[in-house]
Design brief:
single chain, mainly alpha, two-stranded parallel ribbon
Length: about 325
């Protein structure tokens, strides 16, 4: 372990002994681990390159989920709000979170070889979510991959303001319930990017869909779609991936995979170490990376339950928004940016 790793481990041990939450991020003085591991794996297992490329069934899967969710919304046009909330949490949330992660997949152009087709499919997948985010998400998410943990660039990391406010079980519970708001609004406050042509296309198509739902089926149908988005992004099993992916629960590890059954509903985003190592491999083939090169992943900590991750995050006094790995902007990073 290098000098930076020793500092991280000492800091974590000190916080565990004191039983208090960190007051700063964990600062790494090495590059993010995925690029170097990718080179090592490809030098040893070049056949992994055969896994590169899109999921040919992605368009079909997205279409089925979009149509099912919009159809469900029409059925609830005159339902009571309690029924709408119940169905949104136990059914619609799974569909909209599936679409959110479909948009994640499409941000890596993993449905079609032609990028613009992925963009159109992403805008289509966005429809039941209710809030236009597909195009903007791609802009920030690709930076998360290129500059993982880099201060001021990686907007996946909570802000100092969030970390200062979220310091106990109650605050962490509220933060988890509202984490989708923080996730969506954080980059707009910390690193706003001017909207481009495609963001306006995303916006206008989304407004047209929302207005159509309200006009033909009423506010309850639209409310079902919005509730499905936000309850599914809060205190919900599928939303555990927001925390599990990069929150530091173990010294010297900043990305964690999840190998549980919800991968079937989330485009296998749980294979997160594998995804960051090989972002050009579609989710339905990421498990093959672990099968081909098991020695690179078997000694890494991983999870089998996203619900357990949420519970650990809330109840562990040493874990909070500061439990993320950060690194300074380097000269190389500035050139890349």
């Amino acid at each position: 372990m290098g000098k930076g790793g020793e500092k991280i481990e000492d800091k974590l041990e000190e916080e565990e002994d004191e039983g208090v939450m960190a007051t700063d991020f964990f600062w790494s003085y090495t590059d993010e681990p995925h690029a170097s591991r990718r080179r090592q794996i490809l030098s040893q297992y070049p056949q992994i390159k055969q896994l590169f490329g899109p999921d040919r069934l992605a368009c079909f899967k997205v279409t089925m989920v979009v149509m099912l969710q919009l159809w469900t919304a029409t059925l609830l046009h005159d339902a009571g709000w309690l029924k709408i909330l119940t169905i949104a949490y136990f059914f619609g949330s799974f569909l909209n979170h599936n679409l959110f992660l479909a948009i994640h997949e499409l941000s890596h152009n993993l449905a079609f070889s032609t990028p613009v087709y992925n963009r159109w499919l992403g805008i289509f997948a966005n429809l039941p979510i209710g809030v236009p985010m597909s195009v903007t998400f791609q802009k920030y998410h690709l930076e998360h991959h290129r500059f993982q943990g880099v201060d001021g660039i990686d907007m996946d990391i909570p802000s100092h303001a969030e970390a200062h406010l979220v310091k106990n079980v109650v605050a962490k519970s509220i933060w988890v319930i509202l984490q989708l708001f923080f996730y969506a609004l954080r980059p707009l406050f910390l690193k706003p990017k001017p909207p481009g042509y495609w963001e306006f296309v995303n916006l206008f198509i989304q407004i047209a869909l929302n207005a159509s739902v309200v006009h033909f089926w009423g506010w309850r149908s639209f409310g079902y779609l919005i509730l499905s988005t936000f309850v599914g992004g809060g205190m919900h099993p599928m939303a555990g991936h927001f925390i599990s992916e990069h929150y530091v629960f173990k010294p010297d590890q900043e990305t964690y995979s999840y190998y549980g059954p919800l991968n079937l509903l989330t485009w296998h985003v749980g294979f997160h170490n594998e995804h960051h190592d090989f972002p050009r491999i579609a989710g339905n083939r990421l498990h093959k990376v672990k099968e081909i090169a098991p020695e690179y992943y078997q000694n890494l900590d991983s999870y089998k339950s996203w619900s357990q991750v949420i519970y650990m995050y809330i109840m562990d006094r040493t874990i909070g928004p500061y439990s993320r790995m950060k690194r300074k902007v380097s000269t190389t990073t500035k050139k890349s940016e």
